[in-house]
Write a structure and sequence with these properties.
This protein is mainly β and 97 residues long. Helix content is 0%, strand content 55%. Strands 1-2-3-6-5-4 form a six-stranded antiparallel beta barrel. It is globular, with a radius of gyration of 14 Å. The N terminus is likely disordered.
Length: 97
């Protein structure tokens, strides 16, 4: 008997969040979105809402608002655009240093 493997458990538990962040696109001459929001976060990544057009595989720097002076390097895993609100939702995976 075959089991349903379409539903996979996540490796890291996500925590809902509403964290104001800035996103920086390296590929677009460091174009930034200072109004982005992390909507959930885990040890390995975050889901974000932004007004930037993102593509899977793209490098994105995440800068938490406050006194954190450096961008956290990530890459885009998935992207969903909401036609009604014109927001882009994306899953970002933190890159190892």
């Amino acid at each position: 008997m075959q089991t349903n493997t379409s539903v996979l458990s996540r490796r890291w538990e996500r925590q809902p969040a509403t964290i104001p962040i800035s996103l920086v696109l390296k590929a677009d001459h460091f174009k930034a979105d200072n109004s982005a929001i992390a909507i959930d976060i885990s040890l390995r990544g975050a889901a974000v809402r932004t007004n930037l057009a993102l593509a899977p595989g793209e490098w994105v720097g995440v800068v938490p608002k406050g006194e954190f002076p450096h961008a956290i390097p990530t890459h885009v895993v998935w992207v969903r655009e909401d036609a009604a609100s014109h927001w882009t939702f994306a899953g970002l995976e933190f890159l190892d240093h």
